[in-house]
């Protein structure tokens, strides 16, 4: 699939928080490329740096974050772009649905005010074509009585409705890259499907590339072309979705998939990964998963695993991935 | 549901909540929108009532009523036999300690200027424990939800979404509540941490005889925790019964669809629902689901289906559930509003 220039190329991206003496490396040495129109799913541990990675691309990290590396979007290096140019890209070419609906909606303005404002901005930016009216935007994300919703304030909508308002805003102008951070967690299965279908239609009609970050592995499995799995700030596996789900190669990916609820003899069985989630400020020298990994060997505790290619565009960071044993 | 001597922990009787929606124009009239209508259920002590349903169907509204964040427009809500909207100030104080909540949006619920150790012990102090003593409990509470000890010194913005949700859970557990209102408490967690927290919730329940109202979209999760499940559609309970039965052999066409989707193997878009979403300002006549229900007919458009028994203990509000269950009702498509 990836012919020609990638739309997004992330190279050696690092993001640190906290005191320089005791840094929290929320994203470490991330490399990632995305072709135009590609749909990428990102899953992984809670606190593994998924949101931080997305915010680094959007340049919306708090001032306290220390960022290094390169993020190229359509040939421009974003990390060194003047804020004015970045602001022009944001919303029109690059749009993001934040994980937290309440932090991105202003409680003092109606949904209608906020949506009109977004639409005005997009029109100014030349985002013609699909825009449509505020009511149409809400209808696209399957809100009941859109005319009514425009007059309501954020707290008067249900959690899932707020989430859909954000999806509506971010997709209003068909950006070239849409980053959606947990866009469907508050939705029932039926509306969730509609939102995922909306993303796919956006790709088909406008060539939008999509990065979807979610804990819902079935959403990733059904929507995305490729999937990235993160653990403790690092990408630990990346590959074609079908292959990663059929034959995951990193022990963390395997354990994650195994902890999905199963039904055995009428009972729901849950199998969390044993051990504690690692503390990013105190990571061991080797592989961050070693302490919980059933396949770990002494080398894993000593040295950080290097990238290994295990298939067509399928890479894994695990010392044992090559052996087929892990 | 036997007639025990002791009243159930929670009993909702015809609970209804209507909100006024501002007028479209300056001189227009504000219009009422019903968020919950005639909702009745009971939760025995030590049990979990799971609430599922469409986004916007009124689940959080029921939760807010139980937390006294909203007052009902009609109906009653009893906790241990006592009407929680007819309490003396002393009773109210005791009630606020007895019931704790974890919401789907943890960020708004955590004070941004408080450190984690204060956040998780705040309810203890609110109920009179001295600050030193309260904060000494923080490490234990953090460990309980799988957060490293030095997260005690961090502020909410320094946590990831899932970590914040665990803070909210730790805080709710701090005062040994009897009743927990859990509104999508694990949706923001990865599946492994989710499994950990759910296991923890179940353990706590067994150990401390806690009662849960659990709201969720993931049916496997709801089934794991719940004894009884209620299914809401557009403000009304449309099905109510033992969790296993409702989530394995659903009787209502809406629940059947939810369960089919949860099986999750169908490719995206393969089982899309026909029809259109109902308009809350002009709700459809008869059954609210008829504008999307594949089995709808003239009866459905004419009369609102009452809750009736599908099996012992299992209630369903559908005119045709027997025929649907028997596979004897043809899928003729929805009855649209215009029809
Ligand atoms: N502003 C900040 N200051 C300090 N630490 C931070 C800050 N923001 C995030 N972190 C830390 O960085 C790590 C990564 O956080 P991030 O929000 O990217 O995780 P995530 O993968 O999105 O998790 P989730 O699935 O729970 O949303 C976490 O350990 C978090 O505590
Ligand atoms: N304060 C309010 N003012 C007006 N309408 C409200 C208010 N709170 C809730 N509503 C309306 O009540 C209905 C039910 O909302 P509720 O939050 O209970 O849904 P929900 O089932 O929890 O949905 P979700 O799964 O998306 O969280 C929605 O139509 C919502 O817009
Ligand atoms: S068959 Fe009729 S009553 Fe039953 S859910 Fe469908 S529309 Fe409602
Ligand atoms: Mg996140
Ligand atoms: Mg809700």
From TrEMBL, chain A:
Topological type in the membrane: Peripheral membrane protein
Domain of life according to the entry: Bacteria
GO cellular component: plasma membrane
Keyword Glycoprotein: no
Domain ABC transporter: 10-257
A single GO BP: transmembrane transport
GO molecular function: ATP binding; ATP hydrolysis activity
Keywords for this protein: ATP-binding, Cell membrane, Membrane, Nucleotide-binding, Transport
One Pfam family matching this protein: ABC_tran
Family to which this protein belongs: Belongs to the ABC transporter superfamily.
Name of the featured protein: ABC transporter ATP-binding protein
Native species: Caldovatus sediminis
Automatic annotation (TrEMBL), chain B:
Name of the protein in question: ABC transporter ATP-binding protein
Family: Belongs to the ABC transporter superfamily.
Domain ABC transporter stretches: 10-259
SUPFAM superfamilies xref list: P-loop containing nucleoside triphosphate hydrolases
Top-level lineage group: Bacteria
Entry keyword set: ATP-binding, Nucleotide-binding, Transport
Organism encoding this protein: Caldovatus sediminis
Xref: InterPro entries: AAA+_ATPase, ABC_transp_ATP-bind, ABC_transporter-like_ATP-bd, ABC_transporter-like_CS, Oligopep_ABC_C, P-loop_NTPase
């Amino acid at each position: 699939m990836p012919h020609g220039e990638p739309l997004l190329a992330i190279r050696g991206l690092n993001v640190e928080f906290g005191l320089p003496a005791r840094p929290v490396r929320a994203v470490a040495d991330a490399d990632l490329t995305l072709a135009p129109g590609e749909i990428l799913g990102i899953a992984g541990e809670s606190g593994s740096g998924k949101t931080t990675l997305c915010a680094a691309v959007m340049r919306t990290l708090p001032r306290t974050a220390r960022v290094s590396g390169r993020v190229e979007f359509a040939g421009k290096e974003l990390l060194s772009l003047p804020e004015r140019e970045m602001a022009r890209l944001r919303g029109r070419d690059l749009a993001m649905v934040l994980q937290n609906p309440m932090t991105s909606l202003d409680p003092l303005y109606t949904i209608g005010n906020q949506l009109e404002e977004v639409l005005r901005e997009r029109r100014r930016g030349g985002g013609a074509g699909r825009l449509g009216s505020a009511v149409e935007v809400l209808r696209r994300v399957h809100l009941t009585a859109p005319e009514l919703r425009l007059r309501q304030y954020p707290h008067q909508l249900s959690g899932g409705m707020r989430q859909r308002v954000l999806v509506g805003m971010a997709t209003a102008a068909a950006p070239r890259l849409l980053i959606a951070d947990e866009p469907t967690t508050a939705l029932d299965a039926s509306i969730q499907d509609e939102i995922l279908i909306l993303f796919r239609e956006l790709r088909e009609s406008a060539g939008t590339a999509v990065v979807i970050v979610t804990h819902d592995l079935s959403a990733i499995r059904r929507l995305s072309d490729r999937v990235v799995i993160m653990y403790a700030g690092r990408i630990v596996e990346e590959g074609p979705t079908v292959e990663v789900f059929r034959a995951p190669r990193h022990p963390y990916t395997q354990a994650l998939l195994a902890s999905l609820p199963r039904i055995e003899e009428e009972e729901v069985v849950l199998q969390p990964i044993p051990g504690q989630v690692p503390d990013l400020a105190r990571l061991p020298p080797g592989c961050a998963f070693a302490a919980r990994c059933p396949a770990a060997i002494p080398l894993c505790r000593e040295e950080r695993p290097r990238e290994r290619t295990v298939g067509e565009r399928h890479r894994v960071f695990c010392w044992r991935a090559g052996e087929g044993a892990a | 549901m036997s007639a025990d001597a002791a009243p159930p922990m929670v009993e909702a009787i015809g609970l209804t909540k209507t909100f006024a929606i501002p007028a479209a124009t300056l001189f227009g009239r504000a219009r009422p929108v019903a968020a919950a209508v005639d909702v009745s259920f009971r939760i025995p002590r030590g049990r979990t009532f799971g609430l599922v349903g469409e986004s916007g169907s009124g689940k959080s509204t029921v939760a807010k009523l139980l937390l006294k964040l909203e007052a009902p427009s009609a109906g009653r809500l009893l906790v241990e036999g006592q009407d929680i909207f007819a309490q003396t100030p002393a009773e109210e104080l005791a009630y606020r300690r007895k019931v704790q909540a974890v919401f789907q949006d943890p960020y708004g619920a955590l004070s941004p200027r408080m450190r984690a150790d204060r956040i998780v012990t705040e309810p203890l102090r609110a109920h009179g424990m001295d600050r030193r003593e309260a904060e000494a409990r923080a490490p234990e509470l953090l460990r309980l939800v799988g957060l490293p000890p030095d997260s005690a010194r961090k502020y909410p913005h320094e946590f990831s979404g899932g970590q914040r949700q665990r803070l909210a859970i730790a805080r709710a557990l701090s005062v040994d509540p009897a009743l927990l209102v859990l509104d999508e408490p694990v949706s923001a967690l990865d599946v492994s941490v989710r499994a950990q927290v759910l296991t923890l919730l179940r353990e706590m329940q067994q150990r401390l005889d806690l009662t849960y109202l659990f709201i969720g979209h993931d049916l496997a999760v709801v089934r794991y925790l719940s004894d009884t499940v209620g299914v809401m559609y557009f403000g009304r309970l449309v099905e109510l019964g033992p969790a296993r039965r409702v989530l394995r052999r659903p009787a209502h066409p809406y629940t059947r669809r939810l369960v089919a989707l949860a099986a999750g193997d169908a490719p995206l878009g393969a089982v899309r629902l026909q029809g259109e979403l109902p308009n809350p300002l002009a709700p459809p006549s008869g059954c609210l689901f008829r504008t999307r229900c594949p089995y709808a007919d003239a009866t459905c458009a004419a009369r609102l289906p009452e809750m009736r028994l599908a099996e012992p203990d299992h209630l369903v509000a559908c005119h045709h559930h027997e025929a649907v269950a028997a596979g004897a009702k043809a899928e003729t498509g929805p009855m649209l509003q215009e029809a």
